[in-house]
Amino acid sequence: MSFPGSGLAKGLAVTLRTMTKRSVTAQYPDVQPDLAPRTRGVIGLFEENCTVCMLCARECPDWCIYIDSHKETVPPAAPGGRERSRNVLDRFAIDFALCMYCGICIEVCPFDALFWSPEFEYAETDIRELTHERDKLREWMWTVPEPPALDPAAEEPKELTAARKTADKLAAQQAAEAEARNAPRPDGTENPGEAT
Ligand code: SF4
Ligand code: SF4
Predict the structure, then answer these.
(1) Which stretches make up the 4Fe-4S ferredoxin-type domain (predicted)?
(2) Is 60 annotated as a binding residue?
(3) Bridge partners, 42 (sequence order)
(4) Which ligand sits closest to the CA of 110?
(5) How far does residue 62's CA lie from ligand 1's centre (Å)?
(6) Residues 67/133, Cβ–Cβ less than 8 Å
(7) pLDDT tens, residue by residue, 93-119
(8) What is the CA(109)–ligand 2 centre distance, in A?
(9) What pLDDT sits at residue 188?
(10) 104 alpha carbon to ligand 1 midpoint, in Å?
């Protein structure tokens, strides 16, 4: 049940509360904003990781990723082997006038070639300048923040586990070889070991 004039009183109370609050106006550009670590500002391309699989361009809902490439034949690594072909990137561009910053391209890239950078100061007076070509996308790469440290209780990434296992195996193999070289011969004479 409401009393006559209670709506007006509530409205005035809200106005009073707002009037007495401190102003939160951001003084940009004099004061740079304190951005969240995962801010979606612009996309950086680490093209060494890009295999031109086209997944990002196909999945982009705005069709604003432009990729051109050609195929190159790679000679066989060993005699008698087969020639291989690989894709070579000719053009990689993102039109930020169309991009809606959904992040799908970054999510779907299977080779970690795309990253969010918090940089946002790239407004242009000419809309065509908002299509960033590969050189510009690479420059954004250097503004990508380091990933946050792993939670100490988190499971070790499988890539690290595999690399550690390989390193341990190699070290054990080298130790066994060194031991075999230095072990005494069956006739009791000393093993000369590895020639120096
Ligand atoms: S963030 Fe979304 S819209 Fe922008 S390029 Fe990537 S997939 Fe396309
Ligand atoms: S999904 Fe990744 S690897 Fe594939 S074309 Fe796009 S950036 Fe390159």
Answers:
(1) 41-70, 90-119
(2) yes
(3) 117
(4) 2
(5) 7
(6) no
(7) 999 999 999 999 999 999 999 999 999
(8) 5
(9) 64
(10) 6
